[in-house]
Design brief:
Blueprint (H helix, E strand, L loop, with lengths): L10 E5 L4 H12 L3 E6 L11 E5 L5 H15 L4 E4 L15 H22 L8 E5 L12 H21 L5 E7 L5 H9 L1 H4 L3 H10 L9 H12 L10 E4 L5
Parallel strand pairs: 1-2, 1-4, 2-3, 4-5, 5-6, 6-7
Helix pairs in contact: 1-8, 2-3, 3-4
């Protein structure tokens, strides 16, 4: 389901826009009337709707982020909204197996990437603009298997709340969505790789995750994208500094 007129005229920058939730955001926002720039890693194969262009950038590289934001401003004239969806999830590790190089990489993408995006896009945002960052249910709760990811998503929530306080006086809103498990190709791949550790097939793992929710199902990519669209739109004009769970009612 899309709401055709919800984002008409919005000029949007989406990081992580070449795959996963980011790519679905681009497609859905275009259907709702937005134009924009999708940012993803060098070498990304782009398949973008009309009115959208791709910009290559590794979000861990500040110069590349600055260049991507400049390209977005050049293409769009002004930037009305930002969706920061670029992120990675590490493999499971026990505490004694924690790879600190892996920790650095996760923090570089998930935290430094969001910080760099906020730094370089914020001067270009005017009153009425909106930034939405893709956080996680792990923005407020722990997980014994993915320490680095949890640390990064806790930090992302801190960035969101701080940016909301800093940019609010200019009329710019900053919020966060917090997906629970979403059956993307990436999650299915991670579940398959954990079969030996959990003794669950992918289907069993999905069923177990769904059984922990009030709705009896895990969230879909569409659920997450619709939450992003709501927070980007004028329907959320009075909301900032908040984190919106999209998890099927995880109990």
């Amino acid at each position: 389901m899309t709401v055709p007129a919800l984002l008409t005229g919005r000029r949007v920058l989406v990081t992580g826009g070449g795959r996963g939730i980011g790519a679905s955001t681009v497609d859905a926002f275009a259907a709702m009337g937005a134009t924009g720039v999708a940012v993803d890693l060098p070498g990304t194969t782009w398949s973008l709707p009309d009115g959208w262009v791709g910009a290559e950038a590794d979000v861990t590289d500040e110069e590349q982020v600055a260049a991507a934001v400049a390209r977005a401003a050049e293409h769009l004239g002004e930037i009305d909204a930002v969706v920061a969806a670029a992120g990675i999830v590490p493999s499971w590790q026990a505490p004694e197996e924690l790879d600190l190089d892996d920790l650095d990489r996760v923090l570089a993408v998930n935290v430094r990437g969001v910080a760099a995006t906020l730094k370089h896009v914020s001067p270009r945002l005017g009153a009425g603009a909106s930034v939405v960052v893709v956080g996680s249910l792990n923005s407020w709760r722990g997980d014994s298997h993915i320490w680095s990811y949890v640390a990064s998503k806790h930090a992302v929530l801190g960035l969101v709340r701080s940016a909301a306080a800093a940019l609010g006086p200019r009329g710019v809103r900053v919020n966060c969505v917090a997906p629970g498990p979403v059956a993307t190709d990436a999650l299915l791949g991670r579940m398959a790789s954990r079969t030996d550790l959990t003794s669950h097939t992918t289907d069993q793992a999905l069923a177990a995750a769904a059984g922990q929710t009030a709705l009896g199902r895990i969230a879909t990519t569409a659920d997450v994208v619709h939450a992003l669209a709501f927070l980007t739109s004028d329907l959320a004009a009075g909301i900032t500094g908040q984190i919106l769970p999209v998890d099927g009612g995880l109990l």
